[in-house]
Input
Amino acid sequence: MFTFFQLYEFRKLTSDPQNFEIPERPENRRTTDKKWLIAFIVVLVVLIPFLIYTLLHTELKQLSGSDNCGNFCGYKNKKYDEWACTGKDYTEQKYLHLTGTAVFNGIHVRGKECVAECPYGTVPTFNTCLPKDTNNNTPGNPNMSLEAFVALVGEIGRDIGRGWWAILLSAVVSCLLCFGTMSLFRWAVDFVVWFILIGSIGILAILGGLCWYAYFHFKDDHHYKVGNTKDQGAVGFLVLAIFFSIIVAVLIIVITCMVKRVKLIIALFREASKAIFDVPSMILIPVYTSILVTLSFLIFVVLTFFMALAGKLSEVAPNYLEYRLDGVMITALAYNIFGYIWVTEFIIGAQYIIIAGGVSAWFFTRNKHYLDSPLWTSFTNFTHFHLGTVAIGSLVITLMSIVRALLKSLAENAKTKWIIDCCLSNIEEFIRFLSKNAYIQTAMHGQPFFKSGKRAAKLLVSNAANVIAVNSIGDFVLVIAQLLLMVVSTTVAVFIAKATGLTHYWAIAIICAFVAVCMAATFFAIFEATIDCIFICFCEDTTLNDGMARPYFMSKGLMQFIEDSKAIMPKKK
Output
């Protein structure tokens, strides 16, 4: 259990350790993990010359294809003195025709030639002569001709333009459903939590019962014979029946053992909804994050596209030339991937630490009416003092993600890949969990990443039972609620799209469903982050205060949980 003197050491306070504020005031903060911010900037700066070198060797003409000597189809090509076959004028020969394959010194090469017209039996598709299919104009056929594909895309685009109102209406409805869900968590959270828990058990039990019924129906059928199709169906229903039965049993046991902890989960959900209602600008943070992540992804895709078309003309076999990436270009591609992952994780970490600062300010303010732009204060604290903390936290996650991807790619056996992915994905999630809680501690106390992570870990261990409850039952409730919101929003979106009466209404339905899912995911992202922050604030409050000489900052609902916990302690002795 922490004491004020441990907090005194943690924050390096110079005054009365009992006279402190959470979150730490800006004037008392200092820059944290500065060297990791410098490392982050250096990595991005060093990437620039690699990008310049690679982009200078980019050949967009590779999109048109080339013959066996690297001459581009549809262009007048450069002459290289070391290769006599280069420098051909293929201005009139715009199509690439692929011929047979050959092997030179263990290297498989494919014959390529530039032609003015595609040979009989082939059709031009994206400047390449491909075998003709007489039935290739059917929509949805993977071998559809280019002309038919372009026509179909045009029709879909026109229908989407006509159905713009359906997309807008679907977005508005999805937004209203999100706020409705938020209101339920604010005013009827007890009902929502217990309805989801009991309802999930009931639905799974019904599914299990149906599977058991189907299994015995197959098994008792007088036409039933071992080894036939009915035998396989019976085994399938038996597996499903056992699976659903185990899930139901586990849920009942977990909920029964943690029924007292469910009160904490309900209180945390209620407090999270209060915080979002009191600081509504918090809802915009995931929107800004999504925009930045999308922008980062688009930049990464564009750079990768141009870098993939880079290369130097090389002789890979006798009289066979191709544009190949050299060592610097390959390094640039790998460097670009590393930089993209780090930047993306940095943006996500920034979102978390900003939310944590705003929520902790809300939690540790007794009179909420005196809150003065807690999110803006948290943002300025982050940009002035804690950029390096998020840089090191996002670097740790990035390295773990890369190690996981490399080990998976090196594994040859499918089962080995699955085991590696299963183990390392759990380790990665655990690192993310610790990093998020370290960010919360940094937002509250203004301390470096590893120091904050150590304190967060100790807090979580000292509240292990509550942590397990929040991260098992609490996450289960959130997942089910999110799925329900997505299903309802998507269903409404599909009905709105069908109401347009357009030929390709399914395209509008896909867009509407995508918007609905994104809104639901954004809403629950902010809600889950707020719950995590309030839980750490709750742990800090119970650690540093006793409710008597030092009054709690928490709400009456959370105080009631503390009182109930104290009341049952003597019974356990």
Summary: The longest helix spans residues 505-544. The two ends are 20 Å apart (CA to CA).
